[in-house]
């Protein structure tokens, strides 16, 4: 900027020539300079004021918009930001095949205390002891008067308990938000679901982790925030509840110490229901046993973890293999003279029915001797290979963390004697789930199915094709033989009005836990049933442990008297729920015996 001189020489000379005062020129130029400087300062101040006004306008606009947004949203409690790794406490639901909830989440609170903030420790301790009877007032008062600045009191509490604690009016008793796992059906399907507990915990959050069953098996998937939708299981909640109810009644009626049942779709391998009794409530999961036999705990899943000698139900596999390999026909005669001696051991039948029987009669009448002779024709190598193809030599692929512990037991040296005893279910121990899968292959046309607890949709190609172990023709003969066991053999109590039931009984003495050998008055009784037997859709494995039917003069301990009636009632209750229509016998002269167009 060019400054104008206050006393320009030309004007001074001109003023002196005219006799004017040169100082007037200086005063005028000084005034003009001040006026120009004032104008510049005014313009600068006006621009600054405009900028400040614009900033205030934007700030008030942002505040107004935020206030408007908050006014239109739901109110929520303020939260405090904390440092550290975030705890993921979102867990997907678990539903049955119909979409009914089996496991979900429930918002609750944990209870903790800041002792230094408690006004009246004695009153607070007494109030908590009244709300939570398992708490000791004296112990609480001691902890409240200690030097501790933080005390966990409850990992979760109910809304009613939260309100009662709140009514105590004690500022040192505080709540921490929690999301706990809720099983709305109580003990139903408890061994399948397993249970969940708290993992990483903080005051304001806690992660829920699976500790058993499908909760543990699919823990990572259930905790994945990106998961789309719940975990759909293959079980049907209604059928599961009915199976557990009837099985518990049968267990009490037959004076059994425990029971299990597995209901499986023979085509897909889907387990529609699976029960193990005694059971537990996963909402209040008991602690595992720290000593003794884990099988004595209600947490023990007998259908999956329990491997037992299941007895004559294995005769089905022996007969099927012999028919498949062309070693026998159903009309062939088998020597059943008793006893049959082998390597110093005697094989006998529970009820001797003559020195000769046909292959069909050997199966229907459950002859150990006849089955053992057929097994000798098969040989140990072929028998072992056939049972292996049926999945009876390895643990099942069932989606439970407990499944690997249910590994079958069989002899390290599989000799001729083992071949004969294994042919009728002694000398090899498997679980009921193993048996269900193997029986499905016997009656579904001859292909192996893999048991699963996940929903499979055949229309979407979700059912894997299994290996063929027997032909369709042999499978059809096995269906006829299984039906004959109910109509003519050891499972006569297994008939159900309206439904054709086939099956095979198995009674095995329980092994002694100490000293070896077997109990003479303690059995594990099994009935492997298929229904409807003319076109099977389901296999049902029912097992009772140490049962005794006491209506007669002497206890009856065989499967035909104990397990078969229970299985029949299970089918009677479950079949309608599965959508199976009963076959109606037509009587001459009745409206059902004629048809009209």
Strand content: 15-25%
In round numbers, the mean pLDDT is 87
Q: What quaternary form is this?
A: single chain
- Radius of gyration, whole Å: 41 Å
Termini gap: 114 Å
The geometry reads as: elongated
Main beta-sheet annotation:
5 strands, mixed
- The CATH topology of the largest domain is Beta-lactamase
- CATH C-level class of the largest domain: Alpha Beta
- Proportion in helices: 25-40%
Fourth CATH level, the homologous superfamily of the largest domain: DD-peptidase/beta-lactamase superfamily
Helical stretch tally: 17
Give the number of domains: 2
Low-confidence stretches: 80-85, 586-597
Which CATH architecture of the largest domain?
Answer: 3-Layer(aba) Sandwich
Structural class: alpha+beta
Number of strands: 16
Topology:
Elements: H1 9-18, H2 22-71, E1 94-95, E2 101-113, H3 121-131, H4 137-144, E3 151-157, H5 159-167, E4 173-182, H6 190-193, E5 195-202, E6 205-212, H7 213-217, H8 219-223, E7 231-232, H9 237-253, E8 258-265, E9 271-277, H10 315-324, E10 333-335, E11 340-342, E12 345-347, E13 356-358, H11 359-364, H12 368-378, H13 380-389, H14 416-423, H15 432-443, H16 472-488, E14 502-511, E15 518-531, E16 538-545, H17 559-577
Parallel strand pairs: 1-7
Antiparallel strand pairs: 1-2, 2-3, 2-4, 5-6, 8-9, 8-16, 10-13, 11-12, 14-15, 15-16
Description:
The structure is a single chain. 36% of the residues lie in helices and 18% in strands. The protein is α+β, with helices and mostly antiparallel strands. The protein has two domains: 94-232, Penicillin-binding protein 2a (Domain 2); 238-281 and 300-577, DD-peptidase/beta-lactamase superfamily (Beta-lactamase). The strands form five sheets. Strands 1, 2, 3, 4 and 7 form a five-stranded mixed beta sheet that branches. Strands 9-8-16-15-14 form a five-stranded antiparallel beta sheet, with helices on both faces. A hairpin with a 2-residue loop joins strand 5 and strand 6 (205-212). Helix 9 packs antiparallel against helix 17 (559-577) and helix 12 (368-378) packs across helix 14 (416-423). The termini are far apart.
């Amino acid at each position: 900027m060019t400054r104008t001189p206050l006393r320009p020489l030309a004007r001074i000379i001109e003023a002196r020539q005219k006799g004017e005062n040169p100082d007037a020129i200086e005063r005028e130029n000084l005034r003009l300079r001040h006026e120009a400087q004032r104008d510049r300062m005014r313009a600068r101040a006006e621009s600054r004021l405009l900028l400040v006004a614009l900033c205030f306008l934007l700030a008030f606009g942002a505040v107004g918009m935020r206030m408007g947004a908050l006014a239109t949203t739901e109110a929520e409690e303020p939260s405090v930001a904390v440092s550290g790794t975030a705890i993921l406490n979102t867990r997907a639901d678990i539903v049955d095949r119909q979409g009914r909830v089996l496991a979900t989440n429930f918002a609750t609170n944990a209870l903790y205390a800041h002792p230094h903030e408690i006004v009246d420790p004695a009153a607070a301790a007494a109030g908590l002891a009244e709300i939570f009877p398992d708490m000791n007032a004296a112990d609480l008062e001691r902890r409240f008067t200690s030097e501790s600045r933080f005390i966990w009191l409850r990992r979760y509490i109910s809304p009613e308990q939260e309100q009662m604690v709140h009514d105590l009016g004690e500022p040192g008793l505080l709540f921490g938000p929690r999301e706990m796992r809720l099983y709305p059906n109580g003990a139903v399907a408890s061994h399948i679901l397993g249970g969940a507990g708290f993992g990483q915990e903080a005051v304001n959050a806690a992660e829920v982790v699976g500790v058993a069953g499908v909760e543990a098996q699919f823990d990572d998937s259930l905790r994945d925030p990106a998961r789309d939708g719940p975990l759909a299981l293959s079980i049907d909640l209604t059928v599961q509840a009915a199976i557990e109810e009837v099985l518990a009644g049968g267990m009490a009626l037959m004076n059994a110490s425990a029971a299990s049942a597995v209901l499986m779709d023979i085509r897909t391998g889907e387990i529609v229901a699976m029960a193990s009794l005694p059971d537990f409530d996963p909402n209040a999961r008991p602690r595992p046993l720290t000593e003794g036999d884990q099988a004595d705990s209600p947490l023990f899943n007998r259908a999956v973890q329990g491997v037992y000698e299941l007895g004559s139900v294995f005769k089905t596999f022996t007969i099927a293999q012999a028919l498949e390999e062309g070693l026998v026909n159903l009309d062939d005669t088998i020597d059943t003279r008793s006893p049959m001696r082998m390597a110093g051991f005697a094989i006998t039948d529970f009820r001797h029915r003559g020195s000769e029987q046909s292959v069909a009669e050997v199966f229907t009448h459950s002859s150990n001797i006849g089955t053992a002779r057929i097994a000798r024709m098969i040989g140990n190598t072929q028998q072992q290979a056939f049972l292996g193809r049926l999945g009876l030599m390895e643990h099942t692929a069932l989606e439970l963390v407990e499944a690997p512990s249910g590994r079958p037991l069989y002899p390290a040296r599989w000799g001729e004697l083992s071949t004969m005893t294994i042919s009728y279910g002694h000398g090899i121990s498997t679980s009921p789930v193993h048996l269900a899968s193997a029986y499905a292959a016997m009656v579904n046309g001859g292909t192996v199915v893999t048991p699963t607890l996940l929903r499979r949709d055949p229309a979407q190609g979700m059912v894997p094709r299994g290996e063929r172990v027997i032909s369709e023709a042999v499978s059809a003969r096995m269906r006829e033989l299984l039906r004959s066991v109910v109509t003519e053999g050891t499972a006569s109590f297994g008939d159900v009005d309206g439904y054709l039931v086939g099956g095979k009984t198995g009674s095995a003495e329980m092994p002694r836990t100490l000293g070896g050998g077997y109990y003479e008055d303690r059995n594990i009784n099994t009935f492997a049933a298929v229904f409807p037997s003319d076109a099977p859709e389901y296999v049902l494995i029912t097992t009772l442990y140490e049962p005794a039917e006491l209506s007669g003069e002497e206890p009856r301990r065989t499967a035909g008297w104990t397990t078969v009636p229970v299985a029949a009632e299970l089918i009677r209750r479950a079949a309608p729920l599965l959508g199976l229509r009963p076959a109606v016998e037509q009587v001459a002269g009745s409206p059902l015996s004629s048809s009209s167009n």
